[in-house]
Design brief:
By secondary structure, this protein is an all-alpha fold. The chain contains one helix and no strands. The longest helix is centred in the middle third of the chain and has 30 residues, at about 20-50.
Length: about 55
Amino acid sequence: MAHHTHDGDHHDHSAHGTMDISEHLKTWNGFWAGTKWSTIGLVLLAILLAIFRTNP
C-alpha cells in the first residue's frame, strides 16, 4: 500500500502536543444552554397543564 502525503497540508495540530478545544467548548455550552432552557420550558408547560386541566 502506498502512503499518501499532502505537501500543501500544514494543519497538523498534534505536532506541538497541544489540543485546541475552544470549538468543542462552544458547542458544549450551546448544547447545555439549549438543554437547560428546553427543560425549563417543559417544566413550565407541565405546570400550566396541571393548573388548567379540563377533566376532573
